[in-house]
Amino acid sequence: MEEPTRRAVVVAGVAAGASVLAACSGGSGKASGGAGGSGGSGAASGPLVALADVPVGGAVAAKDASGAPVVVAQPTAGTAVAFSAICTHMGCQVAPAGKQLNCPCHGSQFDATNGAVLRGPATRPLPAVPVRVENGQVVAGSA
Q1: How far apart are CA 40 and CA 130, in angstroms?
Q2: Would the pTM of this model clear 0.90, i.e. be above it?
Q3: Cβ-based neighbours of 127, under 8 Å, separated by 6 or more
Q4: Which value, in Å, is the radius of gyration of the alpha carbons in the chain?
Q5: 83 — phi, psi (to 5°)?
Q6: 3-state secondary structure the chain
Q7: Which of 6, 58, 70, 105 has the fewest CB atoms lying closer than 10 Å?
Q8: Cα separation values, 76 from 32, 53, 89, 112, Å
Q9: Using one digit for the tens of pLDDT, what is the confidence trace for 58-115?
Q10: CB atoms inside a 10 Å sphere around CB 8
Q11: From edge to edge, which strands make up the β-sheet containing 109-111?
């Protein structure tokens, strides 16, 4: 079998990077809590996490149906919101830490319950992911 050329490897890497960026550039609609959310990229429905596993005022890491990392928060008891877990600064994955989401790459911090930037270098909030609570599960997609 023939070894790939440097050019083939670079072209494949650029194509893969472009598809990742396209997947991460979902809509910017704001999810609302309770019975549903709105906006976003219209991701297919699917359970993300049991609401009971999400601390009130905090968040947990999850993956959507396509495997993309998201964070699911419970701002008040019985409500759920979700955000992309990809930092808006340089694309690293943020991690839940109590009431905030921390980016391990450059120190950005986001509010776990609304995705707002608490500390830079990020300047844009995390994109909302539409979710709803259904039978005790946080489900992707709007009602």
Answers
A1: 6
A2: no
A3: 26, 27, 28, 40, 83, 84, 88, 115
A4: 16
A5: -140, 155
A6: CCCCCHHHHHHHHHHHHHHHHHHHCCCCCCCCCCCCCCCCCCCCCEEEEEHHHCCECCEEEEECCCCCEEEEEECCCCCCEEEECECCCCCCECEEECCEEECCCCCCEEECCCCCEEECCCCCCCCEECEEEECCEEEECCC
A7: 6
A8: 12, 14, 28, 12
A9: 999 999 989 999 999 999 999 999 999 999 999 999 999 999 999 999 999 999 999 9
A10: 10
A11: 95-97, 100-102, 109-111, 117-119
pLDDT at 12 over 80: no
Cα separations (Å) of 61 from 30, 122, 131? 19, 20, 14
**Span between the terminal Cα atoms of the chain, in Å:** 51
Residue 47 and residue 141: Cα distance in Å, rounded? Answer: 9
Edge-first strand order for the sheet with 137-140 is 46-50, 137-140, 131-134
Tokens, residue 48: 């993300």
State the amino acid at position 14 in one-letter form: V
